Amino acid sequence: MKKSILLLALSLFTLAQAQTEAAKRPNILFLMSDDHASEGIGAYGSWLKDYCRTPAIDKLAAEGMRFTNVCCNNSICSPSRASIISGQYSHVTGALNLGCELKPNAPSYIRELTQNGYETCVVGKWHMKQFPRGTSDYAVTVGQGSYFNPILHRPNGKREKYQGYYADRYTDWALKWLKQRDKNKPFYLSLHFKGPHEYFEYPERWAKLHEGVKIPEPPSLHEDITKTSPLLKGKHYSVMYDDEGPKSFYLVYEDFIGKQTDDPAERRSLAYQHLIHKYLRCVAAIDDNIKRVIDQLRADGILDDTLVIYTSDQGYWLGQHNMHDKRLILEESLKMPLIVRYPKEIKAGSVNTRLGMNIDFGPTMLDYAGVSIPSVMQGVSLRPLLRGVEPADWRESIFYAYYNRSPKHWGIRTERYKLIRFPDTEAVEFYDLQEDPTEMYNQAATPGYKKQIASTQKQLDTLMTNVGVTREFLLKKMGDNTKLPPRLHKRRNKRKEK
User: Fold this and answer.
1) Are 401 and 407 in contact, with CB atoms under 8 Å apart?
2) pLDDT digits (tens, 9 = 90+) for 402-437
3) What does the alpha-carbon distance between residue 406 and residue 490 come to, in Å, rounded to a whole number?
4) What are the structural domains of the chain?
5) Which residues, 6+ apart, have CB-to-CB distance to 66 below 8 Å?
6) At what angle are helices 55-62 and 264-299 packed, to 10 degrees?
7) Which residues contact 343 (CB under 8 A, 6 or more apart)?
8) C-alpha distances out from residue 382 to 249, 352, 354, 379, Å
9) Rounded to whole angstroms, how far apart are CA atoms 248 and 234?
10) Is 410 in contact with 90 (CB distance < 8 Å)?
11) 461-492 pLDDT, tens per residue?
């Protein structure tokens, strides 16, 4: 009898302890935009800082940690999202290009959270072939989704169409889910915004933001990329304007820019003003809705019990190097904004400069949730950095590969250097980020860098072995890199332009 009572007491104590531990586990709010460059966030202090209407995101940074060197391993939407979910490089997930899908046995941090007591939900842009797996609920787009009157797909095969601006409707859905969720469980909520992906559409309430204002240009807007970087920048698909670029922004949007000119520099400047005004208006609408979610968590008294993460699936050129879009290993495309708020553990207003990656996001959330990180995930938890600890064995470099279209390439980014290789030549591009943080000067042919290039190549060889990729695999998957895509100067339909 005494033994039974003792066992019952022990069982009750264990249950109570488990419930206490569960109560300590944070809720998780994962906010992700598409193509939101760090330079388009006020807190990052770029030349646009006085023009970015991002008070809600800036406040998250002021109350949490802002990372300045977090990188994706493949700067294109679907593959980056696959890496975030799985914690694996693109060459492991097999998700190399747009329209990809995760392998059936791919790890998923969201599934791990669901299986370990979290109520989980994904709302908004998903951008992979299969719908979210292992979640409690979802309401997501197929493909890019629409800026206006969006359609969201549910687990039961039902399609829900909403009227209005996509970010407002996605957030409505997320707030409704938060209200109806099981309050006895910690929650995980992904809220994925479509913007500010091209065509940068915005709601009417932001139509006059910076109207009539000439926004400062990035210093490298007029760079002659065919001379400074013939293997990489010079083959990039999306330029603001040059005579050789296959997709000059000015020519695509010429009907809406309002002024015709034959001067190349003036065309670049006009194209930039058109892009940046729309981009910042689109971002403002995202910030509106982030504020709505944060305000609701605060009103519910659970904001400080919630790990809040803001990021983008990659960076984006806002005219730097005469380019827009992403895809390349260069800084503005490679680096992702990452802001994390959790006052119980993260010092307000802190900044971290160590190398992080998109494959680290899942392991970080699992770490905070007290869930074991699957051994097949290649990323590591950022939690030590968030706590202000500097691990002695932290990564010193990241591997990158881009498979989609010319210029296909792979390379290494260390804390100081960047070495870039291509499938059709032994020539490389090499940048010294300490001396040249804006990557204006390719040092591949500079005699003084010969030894450093050889050393960085050895570092790349070792890194490729460690992450499980071979040169043969890269050459096979990248294929022909010598042909530029056809010129694309098709003008946009005026009815679709805001």
Assistant:
1) no
2) 998 889 999 999 999 999 999 999 999 999 999 999
3) 20
4) 24-205+273-393 (3.40.720.10), 222-269+487-496 (no CATH)
5) 43, 44, 338, 339, 350, 351, 352
6) 60
7) 63, 64, 304
8) 37, 10, 10, 9
9) 13
10) no
11) 999 999 999 999 999 999 876 665 555 555 66
Amino acid residing at 119: E
- The answer to whether the beta carbons of residues 341 and 26 sit under 8 Å apart is no
What distance in Å separates the CA atoms of residue 330 and residue 439, rounded to the nearest whole number?
7
Residue 90 contacts by C-beta under 8 Å, 6 or more apart in sequence? 73, 74, 79, 82, 83, 96, 401, 403
Residue 35: C-alpha distances to residues 15, 27, 71, 72, 194 (Å): 45, 26, 13, 12, 9
Q: Which is nearest to 381 in space by CA: 339, 314, 372, 346?
A: 372
**Under DSSP, is residue 22 helix (H, G, I), strand (E, B) or coil?**
helix
By C-alpha distance, which of 137, 140, 141 is closest to 118? Answer: 137
**DSSP 8-state secondary structure symbol assigned to residue 148:** B
Whole-angstrom distance, CA of residue 335 vs CA of residue 31: 17
* Tens-digit pLDDT profile for residues 158-196: 999 999 999 999 999 999 999 999 999 999 999 999 999
Environment class of 416 (CB within 10 Å of its CB; exposed 0-12, middle 13-18, buried 19+):
middle
The position carrying tokens 């992702």 is 336
List, in order, residues 6 or more apart from 334 with CB less than 8 Å away. Answer: 71, 72, 75, 314, 315, 328, 400, 413
* Alpha-carbon gap, residue 231 to 415, rounded angstroms: 23
Cβ atoms of 267 and 261 within 8 Å: the answer is yes
Q: What are phi and psi of 216, to 5 degrees?
A: -55, 145
Other beta carbons less than 10 A from residue 452's beta carbon: 16
Nearest to 335, CA basis, from 40, 15, 19: 40
Instruction: Name which of 264, 270, 221 is nearest 243 in CA terms.
Output: 264
Residue with tokens 């009103």: 299
Q: Give the residue ranges of DSSP H helices in 73-136.
A: 77-86, 90-93, 109-115
Residue 244: its pLDDT value, please?
Answer: 75
Percentages helix, strand, coil for the chain (3-state, rounded to 5) are 35, 20, 45
Q: Is the dihedral of CA 401, 407, 413, 418 positive or negative?
A: positive
CA distance 107 to 114: 13
SS3 of 269-324: HHHHHHHHHHHHHHHHHHHHHHHHHHHHHHHCCCHHHEEEEEEECCCCEECHHHEE
Quote the pLDDT of residue 32.
98
CA distance 150 to 356: 33
In the prediction, which pLDDT does 15 show? 45
